[in-house]
Specification:
mainly alpha; 9 helices; binds protoporphyrin IX containing FE
């Protein structure tokens, strides 16, 4: 049973990381105001939101399962306070930092209309810190972290994110007036 819990705890961490990667990519496409093949603009934004919530569900499963697993020796404090764990405190602490950032990002996104767009956008920028911190946590803390398939997954995901960020920073990101209008709506909180 314990083996099963441990395996599920690790697998849910991997699924959560993959879903966060997709979330970041979809967030960048949403910001561009462009559609994707077979997906109109409004769907991209909706899928971005739903995939992020699914990623959070798998993150809660990851942390929740490992909490009851005798190998991981986690405590509730380890989940919220970074770098105090008994096992690989630095690498585990990176997971905790990523977790705290995810909570802040998701909560402010859900409360966007109440807290205003400036606070929402400021906190949302932390996604660009959360994602690499979570990847480093997976590599440093995971039993599979340094295995070939995991490093390949991390490298491929990093490549995709870097390409998306380079595109995000390019002059062609907001190409035409429609995408500019959509981006303006995103900025003022009406999208
Ligand atoms: C965004 C946040 C997080 C993500 C994306 C994430 C993802 C991952 C991944 C991919 C692994 C490697 C799994 C494997 O080896 O197959 C892992 C391992 C681990 N994570 Fe997380 N994690 C996050 C947050 C946390 C937090 C907050 C904790 C608890 C403090 C935690 C505890 C652990 C532990 C103990 C392991 C080692 C499991 C083992 O191999 O024995 N993680 N995590």
């Amino acid at each position: 049973m314990n083996e099963l819990l441990w395996a599920f705890g690790r697998a849910s961490g991997v699924v959560s990381l993959i879903l966060f990667t997709v979330t970041v990519l979809l967030g960048i496409v949403t910001r561009s105001g462009r559609p994707l093949p077979g997906m109109p603009r409004f769907s991209v934004s909706l899928v971005h939101r739903n995939v992020s919530l699914l990623a959070l569900v798998f993150l809660v499963l990851h942390v929740g399962t490992l909490l009851f697993d005798s190998y991981a020796k986690l405590t509730v404090t380890d989940i919220v306070v970074p770098f105090v764990g008994s096992f690989k405190p630095f690498w585990q602490g990176l997971g905790t930092v990523a977790f705290d950032l995810v909570v802040a990002i998701v909560v402010t996104a859900l409360l966007r209309r109440r807290i205003g767009n400036t606070v929402f956008r400021f906190i949302h920028w932390f996604t660009y810190a959360m994602w690499p911190i979570a990847v480093l946590h997976g590599i440093g803390n995971g039993t599979n972290g340094t295995s070939g398939w995991f490093l390949l997954l991390a490298a491929a995901s990093t490549l995709l994110i870097v390409v998306a960020i380079v595109w995000r920073s390019s002059a062609r990101f907001l190409e035409n007036s429609h995408t500019r209008q959509t981006a303006a709506r995103f900025k003022d909180g009406t999208l």
